[in-house]
Design brief:
single chain; mainly alpha
Length: 81
C-alpha cells in the first residue's frame, strides 16, 4: 500500500471524526498544499502547518473552490497571498 504524502497525513488527522466525501477531502488537500506553498512552509511537523490545516478545514466548511479556500485561509492567518 502506498503511503500518503506528509501534507495529506496532517490534514487527515484533523478530518478523522468528520463525515466528508472523497471529493471534499480532495478539495481540502489541494487547498492545504496551496496554502503551505503560499506560506513557503516545507516542514509539515511545524506547528504553523497544523494551524494552517485547521484554518483550511474551517474555511473549507463554507467555501468550495480549493484556490479560494487557500487564499482566504492565508489571508485570515494574517499573511498576504
Amino acid at each position: 500500500m502506498r503511503q500518503a504524502a506528509p501534507a495529506v497525513r496532517i490534514i487527515r488527522r484533523f478530518l478523522r471524526n468528520r463525515k466528508l466525501s472523497p471529493k471534499e477531502v480532495e478539495l481540502l488537500n489541494r487547498a492545504y498544499g496551496c496554502a503551505l506553498h503560499s506560506l513557503h512552509l516545507v516542514d509539515r511537523d511545524d506547528p504553523i502547518a497544523e494551524m494552517v490545516a485547521k484554518k483550511i478545514i474551517e474555511v473549507g466548511a463554507t467555501v468550495r473552490d480549493p484556490e479560494d479556500v487557500c487564499k482566504l485561509a492565508v489571508k485570515q492567518l494574517g499573511r498576504p497571498n
